[in-house]
Amino acid sequence: MNSIAKNEDLHNSAEVDSDTFEWLLRTGDNVLILSQRLSEWCGKGPVLEEDMALTNVALDLLGQTRLWLSYAAETEAQDRDEDSIAFLRDAHQFRNVLLVEQPNGDYANTLMRQFFFDSWHYFFLQSLLNSSDVRVAEIAEKSIKEVSYHLRRSGDLLVRLGDGSETSHQRMQEAADRLWTYTGELFSEDPLDQRIAARGIAALPSGLRESWTKHVTQVFQQATLKMPAADAWMQQGGKHGRHTEHLGYLLAEMQFLQRAYPGAEW
Amino acid sequence: MVRPADEQIWQWLSEVSDPEIPVISVIDLGIVRALRWTDELHCEVTITPTYSGCPAMQVITENIQQVLQSHGVQTVSVKTQLSPAWTTDWMSESGKQKMQAFGIAPPAQQASQIAKIDVSALISHASVDIPCPQCASLNTRLISQFGSTSCKALYRCTDCLEPFDYFKPH
Q: For A116-212, where are the E strands, in sequence order?
């Protein structure tokens, strides 16, 4: 009897650990994939200042990726580190939301994607500051300082370009309408999110929707942009490994070196 | 070798300069948080990263080890600590002066006084005057929110017309 109870305990604790691992992948993959997308602009920005800004944001996100994925690797306690997690998984094993893997498109599209993500990222990290997992709270405390700067910048640019020329306004509106369908997934939740929330590690994703919507609405108003319909159809699947075709191409570029020259070091 | 006093170690650490801003040390930057002897021969230095993606951290770690070892400390390990998160408020006054003389405007605000937790502060921004490090004029203008590194923004003085880096309050 005792041994059965013990086995159950073991089983439960293994599940608990795999929950944390999975949740850390979701969190780390979001910043990893967006960082990779932004770095595609390196050397191609519309002006030098924007080129530097995007690559600096990409660098911040990459630093945050290392914090999340190295923690994930420790949780998993297998023979993987943050590099092998990033470079040796295939598309269906990635857990990022669909929004961050969307192609850069024109500059309006890149900025709108960034603004939608930064707004969510900010409230997400804020909700982690009191996480029951001390390591999670520490990473959030470090990251939110960087992300508040990202959000200030993307909000500023949204207003400047939305309330800018006829062309810039039109492009920003088109970008908002195009990307809107990928915003719902940020707030979608499944049993894993519920178990993570029950343990006090993170808030329920749905709980962030109100603050996000309020902030986005306020900036859209200043930017003279029209908010897309709240009840629009929302795409999802990224959190469960069902991605748009774009992710495969992104990984082909990001992972090339480690795939072609396994174990290569800098 | 006799174990050096902690004050001596701190003194030696002030010889470790920032790889991007060579006139200031890791002590000026406020990134060294603690010293600990794990045994008679092994000194552990705890540092905190400035920005999570800052590529200088690796170089700083190596330089700390190198400088302390050159003074005879046998084994040096460098530990990274995330919390409390680094802030420019920990920069020393002399470090800020050296930075200014080097041509980089130091943070003009206490980071702790910039509300980060209130999102409305991220929409409306109170403008702060950043004095030009060359001519001290307050007629300066933000050119770019990011400069040559994550920790800096790019400004230009509208009087002497020189562009300059501004170390952002963080």
A: none
In this structure, whether the domain defined by B6-80 belongs to CATH 3.40.50.10540 is answered with no
Angstrom distance (rounded) from CA B105 to CA B153:
10
B93: phi then psi, degrees, rounded to nearest 5: -60, -40
ipTM greater than cut 0.90: no
pLDDT at A67 over 80: yes
**DSSP letters of A164-177?**
S-HHHHHHHHHHHH
Q: What is the mean pLDDT of residues A56-76?
A: 96
Q: What is the CATH number of domain A2-260?
A: 1.20.1260.10
**B67-116 per-position pLDDT tens digit:** 999 999 999 999 999 999 999 999 999 999 999 999 999 999 888 876 55
Q: Which residues contact B81 (CB under 8 A, 6 or more apart)?
A: B33, B34, B46, B47, B48
B141 forms beta bridges with B156
* B147 inside 8 A of chain A by CB: yes
Q: Which residue in this structure is represented by tokens 């990726």?
A: A65
Burial-class residue A68 by CB neighbours within 10 Å (0-12, 13-18, 19+). Answer: buried
To test the contact with chain A by mutation, choose from B82, B90, B118, B152 the residue with the greatest count of A C-beta atoms within 10 A, namely B82
The alpha carbon dihedral of B47, B53, B54, B55 has a sign of: positive
Domains of chain A: which residue ranges?
2-260
CA atoms within 13 A on the CB side of B161: 0
What is the spatial distance between Cα A240 and Cα A29, in angstroms, rounded to a whole number?
A: 12
- Domain-by-domain residue ranges, chain B? 6-80, 93-167
How sure is the predictor about B149, in pLDDT bands with cuts at 50, 70 and 90?
A: confident
Select the residue of B53, B168, B170 nearest A62 (Cβ to Cβ).
Answer: B53
CB contact under 8 A, A60 and B122: no
Closest by Cα among B116, B123, B124, B125 to B87: B116
Is the CB of A6 inside 8 Å of chain B's CB atoms?
no
What are φ and ψ of residue A200, in 5° steps? 80, 15
Give which of B88, B131, B122, B82 is closest to A152, Cα–Cα: B122
Q: Is the dihedral of CA B100, B102, B103, B104 positive or negative?
A: negative
pTM of the model: 0.91
